[in-house]
Specification:
Four Helix Bundle (Hemerythrin (Met), subunit A), binds zinc ion, binds adenosine monophosphate, Rossmann fold, 15% strand, four-stranded parallel sheet, 460 residues, alpha/beta, four-stranded antiparallel sheet
């Protein structure tokens, strides 16, 4: 059976034919690093990790390139930096925020059993490519300079008589309707309400780079052009798969297609556009104001990462997912059982009953149903199939031991011990502070002291 993938652009499942089977290329929009990632952010990470593993299984590990970017230029990062490190120069504070949250993101997604992508480019390291794309767009008549901004004109794109795609084709929106429905308070420097920012001036103290298109003042890129630049640099002008959450279809991906296709005068950016559905918590939209906002980090304090992974994959990636405690408990029970019977057996090849649903547009819910079947018929195929899906990274004994350890360590207790240690250090009782540090280490907790105070994390 061949791999078939659903393409958001053509709204159909099509056989997957890579442009080059020796170099299968996938780009997925990664996080904006300003805070802990929430469990909704874990969905594209896990879904596209399964696709990455499946592609490696089909084409060979050396023949798949997976790029997931890190957005490290963003207003939210600047705000966070100013708030958390008011004493530091803004650029230094920003570096602290992106370093910390980047590290945390890696710790979280490693724990979810996600392989690291082949490349994780950072926006700030690709400003040159962004400028090049912007210059090409201005030269081609698709973008213009106004008040130190560079703006992309979707209307110029759709007026061009060429092989370009239509603006709006990916998100199934008509440009005329967008124009008609545009808000009235459009920024004065825009010629048309639908124009979007490729480059903008930086405020004093904000990160800034030399501007393209003859603009004297320094500035910074818009979000959309970051991905066009990083995808181009690492995967070329035209590649196989572009993914992300469904919320990114418009405007982010529509604008990526527009920039890339107009800059390079081509009809496609990616051959398959894949989007995961949204995750909600206990039947409600997750939001800070509703108080149901859960970070991956918090969940990992209560559940092994593989439980979160299984819980995510029980639902097909394009369907919405309702994240519930009940479902998590069931996922934990299932994994306990699978670890007991399959973690220590010699693993065979993944079963056809598991691989075939995966080939059908990544139908992980059917694949998991097949795993339940293998549990009673072929434990070695169960083990091989679980590994293909990114499970069984530990032995049965490690799994059991970690469970006991996890249930024995509670965050409140850790915080209490840390404040005791801080008090001991303040009165220069270093014997006591060392004793508490060792105690925490024995609990699997590593601590780090800095000017800002003491932070901690599980060290395994
Ligand atoms: P962001 O950092 O908000 O740009 O999100 C990073 C990735 O997570 C993007 O691919 C989003 O589409 C995805 N994402 C954000 N929230 C959710 C959610 N509640 N459910 C599923 N995916 C999400
Ligand atoms: Zn992107």
């Amino acid at each position: 059976m061949e791999l078939r993938l659903y393409d958001t652009l053509t709204k159909e499942k099509r056989p997957f034919q890579p442009l080059d089977a020796k170099n299968v290329r996938m780009y997925v929009c990664g996080p904006t690093v300003y805070d802990f990632a929430h469990i909704g952010n874990a969905r594209p990470v896990i879904v596209f990790d399964v696709l990455f593993r499946l592609l490696r299984h089909l084409y060979g590990e050396a023949h798949v390139k997976y790029v997931r970017n890190v957005t490290d230029v963003d207003d939210k990062i600047n705000d966070r930096a100013a708030r958390d490190f008011p004493g530091l120069p803004l650029n230094e504070a920003i570096r602290k925020v992106t370093e910390q949250t980047g590290k945390q993101f890696h710790a979280d997604v490693d724990a979810l059993g996600a392989l690291r992508p082949s490349v994780e480019p950072r926006a700030t390291e690709h400003i040159g490519e962004m400028r090049e794309i912007i210059e090409m767009l201005v030269a081609g008549g698709f973008a213009y300079v106004a008040e130190d901004h560079v703006l992309f004109s979707p209307q110029a794109m759709n007026a061009a008589n060429s092989t370009l795609p239509r603006y709006g084709a990916l998100s199934k929106r008509s440009l005329d309707e967008m124009i008609a429905g545009a808000r009235v308070d459009v920024a004065p420097y825009k010629r048309d309400a639908t124009d979007f920012v490729l480059w903008k001036p930086s405020k004093p103290g904000e990160p800034s780079w030399p501007s393209p298109a003859g603009i004297k003042a320094e500035g910074r890129p818009g979000w959309h052009v970051e991905c066009s630049a990083m995808a181009w640099k690492h995967l070329g002008k035209h590649f196989d798969i572009h993914g992300g959450g469904i919320d990114l279809v418009f405007p982010h991906h529509e604008n990526e297609v527009a920039q890339t296709c107009c800059a390079f005068h081509q009809s496609r950016m990616a051959n398959y556009w894949m989007h995961n559905g949204f995750l909600q918590v206990e039947s409600e939209k997750m939001s800070k104001s509703l108080g149901n906002f859960v970070t991956i980090h918090e969940l990992l304090a209560d559940w092994p990462g593989e439980v979160l992974r299984l819980n995510m994959l029980k639902t097909h990636y394009r369907s919405p997912i309702d994240w519930t405690m009940k479902s998590l408990e069931e996922s934990a029970k299932t994994l306990d059982d699978w670890y007991r019977v399959a973690a220590d057996v010699e693993h065979g090849k993944p079963a056809a009953s598991v691989v075939e649903p995966l080939l059908d547009d990544l139908n992980t819910s059917l694949a998991i149903a097949a795993l339940h079947g293998l549990r009673n018929s072929d434990v070695s195929a169960l083990a091989g199939s679980l590994r293909l899906l990114g499970f069984l990274s530990e032995s049965a004994a490690q799994w059991e031991g970690r469970k006991q350890q996890a249930s024995g360590v509670d965050a409140k207790e850790v915080e209490r011990l840390i404040s005791e240690r801080t008090a001991a250090r303040a009165r220069k009782d270093f014997k006591e502070s060392d004793r508490i540090r060792d105690l925490l280490a024995a609990m699997g907790v590593a601590i780090k002291d800095s000017k800002e105070g003491t932070t901690w994390e599980f060290s395994r």
